Amino acid sequence: MLTAVYATLYALSVGLTGLLCVLSQLPSPANSSRKYRFNVLILSTLITEFPQVFLFFKFLILYFATKVGVFELAYSNWLYRLDIVVFLTIWGLFLQCYFARYVVEEQTKVFRAADSHDPPGFFHLGYWFRLLNPFWSARNVMVHPDIVYASEEELKQAGPAAEPYMSLDVHIHPSYPRHRPVLIFIHGGSWSMGDKTISPPFISYLALKRWVVVSVNYRLSPHAKYPDHLIDVKRAIRWVRQNIGRYGGDPNFVALAGNSAGGHLAAMAAMTQNDPFYQPGFESVDTSVQACVGINAVLDLTNHKRYWRHKFQDWFAKQILGKEEGFTPNEEFLKLSSPVILLKQMEAERRRSNAASLGEKVTAADTKEEGSKMPKAVNGTEQLPPFLLFHGRADILVPFRSVRDFVQSYKKISKEPICYVEFPNANHMYDILSAPRAHYMAYGIERFLGRMYERHIGDRHIKKD
């Protein structure tokens, strides 16, 4: 009788792990709710980002099942075979996590800085100790928390409850010298949730590698309506330009990074630098940045190529923009808020300029394609910063093809470097916890941004000479 109970528990463990494996590989139905997609995302993250934990418990369960005689029962043969299939699937997920190292190394090898390091090998004990704690952060990194970046007048206009949302944390290593490069991190959360205290591993890693990392909060929907989120990010950049020197940072080199919705805000801030429309009351402040990192970033709010299986554009217009009439009446503004559409508008503007220089007639169709209401800062490609983009091919929330579209458009119009790292079988949340891909991504970010900072230092010396 007791053996039958153990066999039932064993069958339950096989079924649950098998179900997680299936969920991690299947796309969500087109008519699924946002809550369903979010729950599936969390469950699939467990198996795709922490397969080493499942493998460890699989060994324990198999050992225990053998000891109590589960495999001596009549129906245990098929159950054992099914468990072997599940075990091999999890082993495949583990290998994909580990070989993400080579994906990062291959895509970022041309950006290797002089003082950058290689990702840890398979037998690096420190690497495995970091993986034991899903919420790992470096102990020897000092955090200056809850610094308000908004002015008193801006706080008064936003309301008394807005102060925690208009604040930032500064992460530094106290032993490094001054004039260190600065990275501003913008958290994700569908523009409606999240917090600066949710720190991906790369924040600690970069702080250990001489960077000053600023983690930013911003006002969230439904209390804030877009572009309030972006305006708050610009205010944070203003604070960094004016105050980061007190924390050892170099205000002349500021990079942006963001994941998911934060990736959208980072890309928009990088592409609309010094645009008065997004800088009400501080139009004269320099909000330019020297590089931008997008992690699973939302780069298209219009779904113009129908990569989203659901009507994301209507959801954004109603829930984030605050327009009950939906997408269609607000299509023009959402185009101006989509980084990939801004690139296509720049490309159309370049074609128009080339046609005009050759004496060709510019048709009304060309004008319509280009759009007549572009923000001032995106009229030229010379202000585009270098981009580093990461994305998971199994992302069920943000289609990876929209990021590929951005990369292709960027390469057509800009001479600045762009690097795209695409992780096979990675979902939307691989960067949040202390998992293999998150740590390998940290090495890639340090390598790319280190090269951009070297280039910045070299350009500054040339200008002095």
UniProtKB/TrEMBL annotation:
GO function term, MF aspect, one: hydrolase activity
Pfam families in UniProt: BD-FAE (PF20434)
Q: Which Gene3D superfamilies match?
A: alpha/beta hydrolase
Q: Where do the record's region annotations for Disordered lie? A: 353-377
Where is the chain membrane-spanning? 6-26, 38-64, 84-104
Q: Which keywords fit this entry according to its UniProt record?
A: Hydrolase, Membrane, Transmembrane, Transmembrane helix
Which residues belong to any copy of the BD-FAE-like domain?
Answer: 168-345
Q: Which domain of life is it from?
A: Eukaryota
Protein name per the record = BD-FAE-like domain-containing protein
Source organism (scientific name): Spizellomyces punctatus (strain DAOM BR117)
The organism's taxonomy opens as: Eukaryota, Fungi, Fungi incertae sedis, Chytridiomycota, Chytridiomycota incertae sedis
